[in-house]
Amino acid sequence: GWRPLLLAVFPLLLISVWIGVRGSAPAIDWERLVIDHIQTEPSHLRTAAPVPWRRVQVLLRGLGIEAPSWLGPVTYAGRCLIGPRPGIHLVVPGKRGAVTLLLLPGALARREHRFAASGLAGVLVPAGFGNLAVVGRPGEALEAILDRFLAGVSRPSDDLGRSSADARRRTQPTAAGPDR
Fold first, then answer.
1. Residue 105: which residues within 8 A CB-CB, separation 6 or more?
2. pLDDT of 50-107, one tens digit each?
3. What pTM was estimated for this model as a whole?
4. Burial class (CB in 10 A: 0-12, 13-18, 19+), 26
5. Closest CA to 134 of 96, 163, 85, 160
6. Which residues contact 139 (CB under 8 A, 6 or more apart)?
7. Phi, psi (degrees; rounded to nearest 5) at 154
8. Closest Cα partner for 112 from 93, 137, 90, 131?
C-alpha cells in the first residue's frame, strides 16, 4: 500500500523543508557585527606593545596567507569569533589611532562597502578568503591601509592579494550594503 510510497516521499519532503529553512535564514549584518566586535574588545585598541611577528605569521598562514612585510608593528593579533564565524583580528597603529583589520573567512559580501557607526569608520571588501574589514577613526586613511594589505599578501595557490586588489579596483562601492 501506502507505506513504500511514504518511505520514498518523506525523505524528499525533509530535504525540501531543510533547503527552504536554510534559504530563508536572515542575512548577516557584517558591518554591525564588525563594529560590535571592536566595541566588545576595547583593550585591543589601547595596546601599544607589538606582538611577536611569528604570531601574526602563524595566524595568517591558517588562512593560507603570507603576512605582508609592510604591515609593521601589530599591537594585537588573535583568533576571534566574529558573529557566527571565527576570524582573525589584527590591530595596527594608524595616523589617527588604532586601526583594526578583521579577516572574515567565508563572509559573503561581494562588493566593497563603506560604513560608519559609533565613532568609527570602516570599509568591508571581498578577498580571496572571504571578506576583509578595515576600521578606524573617521579621517583615517583606511583605503590606503586596505590596498597595501591586499597588495602585500600572497597566497601561492591563487595570488590572493593581487586578485583581491584588482577586484577592488573594478567594483564600485555601495552605500546600500554588501550583497548577502
1. 63, 85, 86, 87, 129, 130
2. 999 889 989 988 888 887 777 778 999 999 888 777 899 999 999 999 999 999 888 7
3. 0.71
4. exposed
5. 96
6. 96, 121
7. -140, 150
8. 131
